[in-house]
Amino acid sequence: MKIHIGSEPWNHAAALYIRMSVFVLERGIALADEFDDQDGADRVYAVCYDVNGQPAATGRFQTIDSTTMRPGRIATLKQYRGHHLGAQIIAGLENYGRQHGYTQSLIHSELTAQGFYERQGYHVVSDVYTEDGVPCVNVAKSLVETGADQS
After folding, report:
1. Cα(143)–Cα(145) distance, integer angstroms
2. What does each C-alpha distance from 129 to 2, 11, 72, 95, 104 come to in angstroms?
3. pLDDT in tens, 31-82
4. pLDDT tens-place string over residues 135-145
5. Which of 33, 55, 142, 148 is a good FRET partner for 16, with 20 to 30 A between their CA atoms?
6. Is the distance from CB of 75 to CB of 35 less than 8 angstroms?
7. Percent of the chain with pLDDT over 70
8. What is the DSSP string of 113-136?
9. Which residues contact 111 (CB under 8 A, 6 or more apart)?
10. What pTM was estimated for this model as a whole?
C-alpha cells in the first residue's frame, strides 16, 4: 500500500470514488451532504493505493485556522477494511499538517468512530451533536512533537 497526498485531478477522482462508494452507496448519505463546497479542485486528499494502483482508502485535508487542521471524510472501501488503512490516512494527513505548520488537529467524529480516533491519540472536546443525521462529537489532538505520547 502506498499513500499519496495531493490535489492532482487523478488523486481527487480516486478520493471521490471511495467516498461515493462508502458514504453514498453503502451508508445512504445524500449526495449533496457528502459532496460539499469543500471539495474544490484544489482540495488536498490522502489516498491509499493498493499494490495494483487501485484506490483503497481516503481522507480530506481542511484548514480551520492558521494552526488547526481538520482531517475529514475518512473512508475505506469494504474489501480493504481491517488493514489499518484509516490509521495510515490519519497519520499521513497529520504529517502533511505538521509539514505545513499546523499544531492542532480537530475531527468531527461519528460516535461509532470515536474509539478509532481515540486509539489515534485524539480526545473528545465537545458534546454530542447531529451532523448529516448522524450523532457526532469533536475530537482533538496536538500535533506538536514533545517526545512523549500525544493524547
Report:
1. 6
2. 35, 31, 16, 28, 21
3. 988 888 888 888 999 999 999 999 999 999 999 999 999 999 999 999 999 9
4. 999 999 999 97
5. 142
6. no
7. 96
8. GHHHHHHTT-EE-S--EEETTEEE
9. 128, 134, 135, 136, 137
10. 0.89
